[in-house]
Amino acid sequence: MGHIRSPLDHPVGGGGTGGRRPDRTVVILGAGVAGLSAAYELERLGVPVEVLEGSRRLGGRIHTFRFGDDADAPFAELGAMRIAAGHSNALRYVAELGLAEELRSFHSLLADKNAYLRTAESYVRLRDAARQLITEIRDGLAHDGYHPETLMFGAWLTLVVDAIAPPDQRQDLRQDLRSRLLDHADHLNLAPFVRDGGSAFDLHGLFAAHPELREACRDPLRGFLDDILVETSTELFRLRGGMDQLVRRLARRIHGPIRRQHEVVGLEARPDEVVVQLRIDGRPAVRHCSEVLCTLPFSVLRGLRLTGFSDEKLRIINNVHYVPATKVALHCREAFWQREGINGGASSSGGRVRQTYYPPIDGDPAQGAVLLASYSVGEDAELLGRMSSAARYAAVLADLATMHPQLLRPGMVLNARSLAWGQFPWSRGGCSVHWGMDPSQAEEQRMLAQQPEGRLYFAGEHCSSRPAWIDGAIESALDAVSRIVMHVPATLPEMPEEPAPAELAG
Ligand SMILES: Cc1cc2nc3c(=O)[nH]c(=O)nc-3n(C[C@H](O)[C@H](O)[C@H](O)COP(=O)(O)OP(=O)(O)OC[C@H]3O[C@@H](n4cnc5c(N)ncnc54)[C@H](O)[C@@H]3O)c2cc1C
């Protein structure tokens, strides 16, 4: 890698474009996993990069929060927490960054049968959930002639959708079950998918063997089903010690500067350059760049000053749908849930809490344990997100204490941390989603989202075929890098340094 010239941010009104040297540095906006992967890949191809990040932190929606300064302090994954076995881009990076030995199984909802399901009246252990759910499903059915395995399927699908999906989709599922899903399923031989003597059901096996069953679901539930099945799969991994290792290791491999607190406030796409308007330490600055890769979520981008963009591009920036997501983590004195026989997995906690995860302790147990008390998406997340953080903790604690009264013991909860991604200024949404789209519409959205605007390129999970996943963010970065290197000659000799006096100030 040749010498990389340090950037020159010049103040508003100072210098214009005159005196600029031709510069082949690609300026990358956003230091989430998409921005950092793109920087890493571009440098590997000999293209100099500079990364501008608005916040004080790298990693974006990969956000491991540590309750303490020690490296082995208990931590909460406030953003991404698992990687699916089929997510080859993410797993390739894990291996390449020397993290393969830190991969551990991630235990999701349904993994620990001692975890709980909230029912209309109370809570039951997941191992007893089927009986309870079948009774509830039966109440709303037109007839009682279904095979027991069919009701078991309905019960298990209701369980996972209730835990994970936003409220409207929970409603859709109940209607779909009653109107056609159970009828479809009743014609299939479901016996091979019943597990544990009738107390569990292999939804993944069934949907894999009978993809036509998915078609019997209405949108947007149909689109969401894939995510639900991945989220409850047994083939998930976590990184022992925290997902942020992925980001930190990537950042360490990047030679070009990564500048924090460089907030993008406007972008102008011109035929021969991109003008980036910035706020650096509260002061405005303007940067004229020959090539820019923007990885800011469209939910953020749509609030910035955008000029020189085509109507089509503005439309897609404004229209990509984001769902909010909120996580609330509690640092507890001890992993009290283990005394109740819960050693991982998650409870379907209902109410505003939705899902409660019991992460393993990677460090010294004497430092306590973290309970991911609440993980919600959609309206539930929005509701919690709009509260002050104090009100949010109080609401989650009040809901969850009926299931885990130990939380109310004096000194049990040492600390709390939450993140409402829908309200977070650096994301303004949890993730983009393709729910309600058929595959061709999703592909069209991906192409439009990726489409460069002159010398301004785009990447980020919202520009991928796998939105809402790290894997998609990396996929989009690789796509953008391929486009960029077609236009930026990677093997050009380094340009001689040229003084640009008008641009030096600031
Ligand atoms: C609650 C939650 C749970 C998730 N769980 C999983 C999971 O288990 N597994 C999984 O694979 N994926 C998961 N995801 C999705 C995954 O985290 C994202 O798909 C991925 O991290 C997105 O990366 P990105 O680089 O596209 O965007 P981001 O990570 O959002 O990166 C964008 C960057 O741009 C910066 N930025 C924003 N505005 C500006 C501005 N004006 N100026 C300069 N910089 C700016 C941001 O600070 C950020 O660093 C989850 C996401 C959430 C929210």
Automatic annotation (TrEMBL):
Residue numbers binding substrate: R82
UniProt record, GO biological process: amino acid catabolic process
Region of interest (Disordered), ranges: 1-20
Superkingdom, taxonomy of origin: Bacteria
UniProt keyword terms in alphabetical order: Oxidoreductase
GO molecular function, one term: L-amino-acid oxidase activity
Native source species: Actinoplanes siamensis
Gene3D superfamilies xref list: 1.20.1440.240, 3.90.660.10, FAD/NAD(P)-binding domain
Lineage: Bacteria, Bacillati, Actinomycetota, Actinomycetes, Micromonosporales
Identification of the protein by name: Flavin monoamine oxidase
Amino-acid positions noted as binding FAD in the UniProt annotation, renumbered to this chain: G79, A80, M81, R82, V264, E461
Cofactor: FAD
Domain Amine oxidase stretches: 33-484
Cited InterPro entries: Amino_oxidase, FAD/NAD-bd_sf, Flavin_amine_oxidase, Flavin_monoamine_oxidase
